[in-house]
Amino acid sequence: MALVIIQLMVVLLALYVGSRYGSLALGAISGIGLAILVLGFGLKPGNPPTDVIYIIIAAVTCAGMLQASGGMDWLIQIAERLLRKHPDHITFYAPLCTFFLTVLVGTGHVVYTLMPIICDIALKKGIRPERPCGVASIASQVGITCSPIAAAVVSFATISAANGFDITIMQVIMVTIPASIIRLLCASASSSRRGLDLDKDPQFQARVNDPETYNYMYGHNATSLDKKISKSAKYSVYIFLCAILVIVLYAVFPKLLPVYDGKALKMNIVIQIVMLSAAAFMVILAKASPKKAVSGSVWQSGMVAVVAIYGIAWLADTYFSNYMDAMQASLGGIVSQYPWTIAFVFFAVSVLINSQGAVVVAMLPLAYSLGIPGPILLGVFPSVYGYFFIPNYPSDIATVNFDRSGTTVIGKYLLNHSFMMPGLVSVIVATIVSSLICQVIY
């Protein structure tokens, strides 16, 4: 038993140290933990999550081409026009915009261009920017569990099917999308009055009274509307939307899938084929530059996610697969009586590893091995997002920097930051709502 605990500490230490360095280091340092377990303690290595990695590579390649062609700029412009048309309700509309951008593209890193626009609109309307900015950053990550091309969703469907819960990608997002819309409305409502109004905030007023700071805050006009969108950029969006529709079509009508040796083609293969084909069409028809795509933020952040998931999931699978019988014996009673408590495990692991896809790949097989029913796991699926808890994620840090008013903050005591309240409201509400939906459906 002592050896089991020591090896668990190796896993947790690797995740902790990796999270301190962030980015590629999270996956790489997980490799050190894997080496210690396999070469040091002699554990049998688990299986790296190759299926998930292939899907991420295909989806990120397609999204990267979309960004390189200028199609992403067009989507940002559409969102900005909506926000500028309804500035009074930006605390509600901004998170919905960032949410649907993530749902469409499959990564939350597409919203960096929109964040300074959200801040600019709120500031010049006299609305405390912390209110829309904090919840919009949360919403950009919430959309991952609702995107048909996101690794977390595809992994959930694939792993569930392998464990006897036959569910399609469309059935997953039919639960997560309505739950997420409700969660964002609640998070926005709770954020709409948070903090002092700007005219009553002494810290903000002190900044306003300083001419240099005033010019910094109000002397700039963050907008994407001055960018000229080419026809080829619009073609790339049409190609991307067609690719999404093809994936959805096959997910809704699985009988359309080719059959080999009595088994239908798996959806993970379909997604890879369609995404790679769409990327190729963007190069040929929309003049997307592969070199520009590789240097873009979407492609680079996606490749970082590949390395992180590769190392983290392989490390976790190695440890859990070697001690599955012991875990079933020790945790089986608690989990069978209170299966929803697995949500706390998902959330805690997400705080450590900053990836919803990695949480699903690493922890969902363990949850199924403990005998937790698929509908319960689908109900607690939103709890895989917990990395807002410690504000070190790139989108949160970027949002703080984009807010020229200084109202969106990390906080003196680290945990008293602008993302904590909307994040907790979001996760709690979504987990409850999605669990209720699953009870009705299943």
Query: What's the overall average pLDDT, rounded?
Result: 90
Compute the separation of the termini in Å.
Answer: 39 Å
Protein structure class: mainly alpha
Main β-sheet description:
2 strands, antiparallel
Run of helices and strands: HHHHHHHHHHHHEEHHHHHHHHH
Shape summary: globular
Rg, Cα atoms, Å: 22 Å
Count the helices. How many?
21
Strand order of the largest sheet: 1-2
Q: Tell me what portion of residues adopts beta-strand conformation.
A: under 5%
Helix content: over 70%
Low-confidence stretches: none
Structure summary, number of beta strands: 2
Secondary-structure blueprint:
Blueprint lengths: L1 H20 L2 H17 L9 H20 L1 H15 L4 H16 L9 H11 L4 H13 L8 H12 L6 H23 L10 H7 L2 H8 L12 H22 L6 E2 L2 E2 L2 H19 L4 H6 L1 H26 L1 H14 L4 H12 L2 H14 L4 H6 L14 H9 L17 H22 L1
Antiparallel strand pairs: 1-2
Helix pairs in contact: 1-2, 1-15, 2-15, 3-12, 3-13, 3-15, 4-5, 4-12, 5-7, 5-9, 6-7, 7-9, 7-20, 8-18, 9-21, 12-13, 15-18, 17-18
Description:
Helices cover about 70% and strands about 0% of the residues. The chain has 21 helices and 2 strands. It has helices spanning about 1-20, 25-40, 50-70, 70-85, 90-105, 115-125, 130-140, 150-160, 170-190, 200-210, 210-220, 230-250, 265-285, 290-295, 295-320, 325-335, 340-355, 355-370, 375-380, 395-400, 420-440; strands at about 260, 265. The model has no long low-confidence stretch (mean pLDDT about 90). The longest helix is centred in the last third of the chain and has 26 residues, at about 295-320. By secondary structure, it is an all-alpha fold. Helix 1 runs antiparallel to helix 2, helix 3 packs antiparallel against helix 12 and helix 12 packs antiparallel against helix 13. Strands 1-2 form a two-stranded antiparallel sheet. The protein starts with a helix and ends with a helix.
